[in-house]
Fold these 2 entries.
Entry 1:
Amino acid sequence: MTPDIFPEHKPLLSPPDANAKLRHSGTESHAAWSLSLSPTRPDTCPHSTAGCRAACVGSGGLAHAFPSIGDSRKLKTEFFTRQPDRFLSRLENEIRAVVSKNRDTGLTPLFRLNAFSDVVWELVAPQLFCIPGLKVYDYTKNPHRAPLPNYSLTFSRAEGNEAHALQWLERGDNVSVVFHELGNYSNHGAYAQRLPKKWRGFHVIDGDRSDFRCLDPVSKPGEPGYVIGLRLKGGIREREKAIETGFSVPSADWL
Ligand code: SF4
């Protein structure tokens, strides 16, 4: 039998402490395991835009600083595309093991399967969503997706998809919007950027307090969704590109 492309002794899921954002979001009651595929493949991020690719932490950030991290994500992505049955079987076993290990511990495991991708998991692997106790959350730029009871999806506004973002908000689903203020806000200074209270008439919630989007407020039936405000981060060049393309929205226009 052909061996798996991705080493069998390595897990596909990253534990909660492997991702700074997920680690900081963790609480005594919730922690998130994530799947990091490579966003550079057209089949993993088919709705990406020039602006989001420029600001993407999946290809910049740690993957840029430590090439071995980017290489591992690429190999995992090769495994997914070339040996999908083996990939999905391993992924399901890992998820079941995490859920089972944390049953009755008081900790609810969350899963982010598109840490740096936009795979339609509900169609690619519907069997995953039958796992009892499963809670998955992701951002998506695919306007045709819709949240499931155990799969929270936040539409991610970018340049060129604002009409879809407004449709999601109007039908009651949440949408993330990246905002910026001009100035030198690299590293932790990024958090000094102000978020507006409203964007296009919809209430803005501070999405940087936690990454756990599945715990965000959900609107009542018939009411519009919430805007999940995120501050533009990254290096100077990434910020410039995100602003220039319109991927990031100036807070000043809405304050
Ligand atoms: S869609 Fe998301 S993961 Fe893909 S390139 Fe854009 S920001 Fe990165």
Entry 2:
Amino acid sequence: MLKKERYKYFVEYFSKNQPNAVTELHYNSPYQLLVAVILSAQCTDKRINQVTPKLFERFPDAASLAASDADEIFPYIRSVSYPNNKAKHLAGMGKLLMENFNGVVPSDLKDLQTLPGVGRKTANVIASVVFDAPAIAVDTHVFRVSNRIGLTTRATTPLAVEKQLVEYLPQDTLAIAHHWLILHGRYICVARTPKCEICPLTWFCKYYEQHNTEKALLKAEAAKQKKAEAAKKKRTLNTISKELKKRSVDKNN
Ligand code: SF4
């Protein structure tokens, strides 16, 4: 199947079935989304949503964040991953937002990336979600699912994936495609073992195609049998070892 066809089916399927996909992070303003996205690096959205209500109550805007420091922010985010670093990032981000942007989250990708804790991925999320810019953020889910489906080829870095997605996806779907890929990766095309048995994309997924040829299925079956035989052998050896120990105890008595 041609790459262009995979894109076509991908956009058709999700446009029809998830036309309103959005981020699972809770926020009410660009500032709140920026804070939530910074916190969400290497952490789950669920965890971030647990800490942000109290954090936003105490630090409702860039000015309040700028007036604080990492020590004051830390207790509010102690349960997220890398709380020390993130507390420093948030304090620095608040200060820079006030000093350079009047407390308003900028729309420009370069401006966004001058803020502490904001890399290309976070900047792309803000640009696309808040400002409707034709950008797509590549996180671990987007990276993995794009590669598996075959939307990207030989893309070994997030930037390479981003470039191919931007090249092939219709511009008006870039922002929402980010959510399609994340949600699909979070709930179906999961990292360790993708749930292909319940996935509606099998008919155009490259990974599925490659892993479901007769040869691949035979190989998987052979590996399964080998594993079962090894487990059986281990059980038998354990039984023999226990029996020998028992006999040795009986003999000594
Ligand atoms: S078929 Fe499997 S590998 Fe392909 S997208 Fe679905 S879950 Fe992922």
